[in-house]
Specification:
By secondary structure, the protein is mainly alpha-helical. Among the domains are: about 1-145, Serine Threonine Protein Phosphatase 5, Tetratricopeptide repeat, CATH 1.25.40; about 315-415; about 425-475. It is built from 24 helices and no strands. The radius of gyration is 28 Å and the shape is elongated. It starts with a helix and ends in a 25-residue tail after the last helix.
């Protein structure tokens, strides 16, 4: 019998009131959620929670008890929805948590308000809404007193996660340092969380500052996190840190070691039937395969990853996967699809506020296509200004180096084709100039081929033919062609 089972046996006590039974179920569920045992938490809630997408019936309960049911239902909806990649789960979780928050506020339960905000901040983070997540977690901290040390430490870890994903690594480190005193004396589960987050920050700082010793520290921290999670029997979080360690080893060029840790993580998430985390493991493996030059294998894996993320609502993860897919397609020569998916990745990420990921997609577009002629000079320039705007707050030296490298590519393109350029051809240079002038004409005339042709001194049919035959990339800049109507008056047959 598990500890959860033994605690739920208390439900047989006839002296318990209905509200006491409900609170017992909620306490057991909260403990199981903390351990990453989401199916067990669902069983612990029993009939209180119908499942993802369903609102629990709480009218007959006392206000505080009702708020607790909504809190655990919302928390579980967010985590289970992420693990199973359920479409709309995060929005549903936000609704439940917001209702719980309002009820706790009305009852003056300030610590529980902060707990609801803590979970609500994680929902925003999963959606890629990092600014909203940051604000919500800051509000959670304001409601905590000196006696709420454990919850304060957890909130600081979540806050540091937001800062890492937005490229603000020193801010993340300050938050972890603030919580250090608490974690030194806590149990394995919280120590695992502490070491795992330190590993993430060390890895990002190592790249940002070019510190090889930080890479070593990150490996030590991830290994410690895996150990503590194994001791606490928190398999799901153990798998997450195995994936994080594999990503670090990939960045260091240790591909064989990365695959070994990914195999362990894949085994855990497959057994837990966790497609969301399994997709993240597969995305890391695809990165390793691309680095090894195994682009077709990476493409095959990425197809499943993108499909999984498209079925859910974690748009930042989807945009990240689409960017990797765009690079894989570029290496395989599928240029049109690659360019389209990189634009899509940037648009999705920027749309939800995941600016760093959007910036990476724009950089990938320049890195893969900036030097060629599949993108016009104007498109390359726009991609660079977009990346520069999106990554302006990044503290990462690698991001800055990529931006500088892309700036050199853009400057070469804007300087025009030079006689001694590599792979120079006269007809290629003429076509590039032709594309530049046509693009300017289309932009000036709002995409009207007829007006653009007149501006260029060409016939409508001639410009249409040039676009279809030599500059198909410019077709999306024109307004949709309107089919010419045929006369309803038939010509008389020739005698």
């Amino acid at each position: 019998m598990t500890l959860a089972d033994s605690r739920l046996k208390e439900l047989d006590n006839p002296s318990l009131s209905e509200n006491e039974r409900v609170m017992l179920r909620c306490r057991v569920a909260a403990d199981l959620i903390h351990k990453g045992q989401y199916e067990g938490a669902r069983e612990a809630l029993g009939e209180l929670w119908p499942g993802v997408g369903q609102r629990p019936e709480v009218k007959r309960l006392l206000p505080v008890t009702a708020a607790e049911v909504l809190l655990q239902s919302g928390t579980l909806t967010g985590w289970l929805g992420s693990a199973r990649n359920v479409q709309g789960a995060q929005e549903q979780a936000k609704d439940l948590l917001s209702e719980a928050l309002r009820k706790f506020k009305s009852q003056g339960k300030h610590a529980k308000v902060s707990e609801a905000q803590y979970e609500l901040g994680m929902c925003y983070w999963r959606l890629g809404s990092y600014d909203e997540s940051r604000v919500t977690l800051e509000e959670a901290l304001k409601g905590l007193g000196d006696h709420d040390g454990e919850l304060r430490a957890k909130v600081l870890i979540r806050r540091s996660l937001v800062e890492v994903w937005t490229g603000r690594y020193h801010e993340a480190w300050k938050m972890l340092d603030e919580a250090a005193a608490f974690f030194e004396g806590c149990g394995d589960a919280l120590k695992g969380r502490w070491h795992g987050q330190k590993g993430l920050v060390f890895r990002r700082l190592a790249t940002a500052e070019g510190r090889a010793d930080y890479f070593d520290k990150a490996i030590i921290e991830y290994t410690a996190a895996i150990y503590h999670y194994e001791q606490a029997k928190h398999e799901r979080y153990c798998g997450t840190n195995l994936n994080n360690l594999a990503f670090l080893l990939y960045k260091l060029g240790r591909y064989k070691d990365a695959h070994e840790h990914l195999d362990r993580a894949e085994f855990i998430f497959t057994r837990l039937e966790d497609p969301g985390n399994l997709a993240q493991v597969d995305e890391t493996r695809a990165r390793v395969l691309i680095a090894e030059g195994l682009h077709r294998e990476a493409d095959r894996i990425l197809a499943g990853v993108v499909k999984t993320f498209e079925q859910g609502s974690e748009f930042a993860l989807l945009a990240d996967a689409l960017t990797v897919q765009g690079v894989a397609w570029a290496r395989l020569g599928a240029s049109e699809r690659s360019i389209a998916v990189l634009y899509r990745a940037a648009d999705i990420a920027e749309g939800v506020g995941a600016l760093t990921i959007a910036g990476f997609a724009a950089l990938a577009l320049i890195e893969e296509y900036g030097a060629g002629r599949l993108l016009t000079q104007a498109e390359v320039y726009k991609a660079y200004t977009r990346a520069d705007r999106l990554l302006k707050d990044s503290q990462d030296a690698e991001d800055a180096a990529r931006l500088r490298a892309c700036a050199r590519v853009v400057m070469r393109r804007l300087a025009g084709v030079q006689l001694h350029d590599k792979n120079f051809s006269f007809y290629g240079a003429v076509q590039e100039l032709e594309a530049k002038i046509i693009e300017q004409a289309l932009e000036e005339t709002g995409g009207s081929v007829t007006k653009a042709a007149k501006l260029l001194g060409l016939k409508h049919q001639t410009l249409g033919s040039i676009l279809n035959q030599r500059h198909r990339r410019l077709l999306r800049k024109r307004t949709p062609a309107v089919p010419r109507r045929r006369s309803i008056i038939k010509e008389p047959p020739e005698e």
